Amino acid sequence: MKKGGQVTIFIILAILIVAIALVIFLIIKAPENTSKLNSDLVYNFVDECIREIGDNAVSQIGQNGGYYFPPSTSTNSGIPYYYLNKKNIMPSKEGIESQISLFIRANLFYCTKNFVDFKSYNISQGDISVKTTILNDKVVLKVTYPITISRGNEVLVIKDFQEEIPLRLGLIYDSVSEVLNSSQQGICMSCLYDIAQKNDFYVEMLDYNKNTIIIIFRDKNSRINEEDYEYVYAVEI
User: Would the pTM of this model clear 0.85, i.e. be above it?
Assistant: First the structure.
């Protein structure tokens, strides 16, 4: 009986030790893992949206000659003139950066869809701001998107995102600018092909009408949405 009592006490002590250890583990570990999971899930979701919308932005900007929406000085088909009435009216690089930022601010909400896929969380969002920087070999997007995530007593805040799109947009811009500045008529045929060959671009020229030529810079080294990148503009001759 004495030995049986001792065994019972040891079993009870073992159960108590395991139970206490389990409670301590749950108290310490569970909140940390849950918080990390919340932050990572939402952050990665938004990050993927920024990349998707960023790709769409630079693609449309290229087709619209540096603009979100074609300006009034465009052809009837919406291709902006870079040379018109004997003047160089090519947009500045800073202007194109602003157009990319505008596109992302206007369209990011359509991708995040008010976070309807995160039904177990309460998510509120603030105003979006975007800083775009065009470099020779990439486009850098710095996005401030304040997002507050809560569930129960837990509250998490994320806001800073950054994406880099591998795209030679800066080199394309400088090449187009060099061509325009090399001629008083807005187009220098020899300059155009020399610059394209030097930077490994393909250049296509299309007759739009008797007074207008459409120029397409195509870069096989930069693919957006699985297509070679194109930058399109018009010149009056």
Answer: no
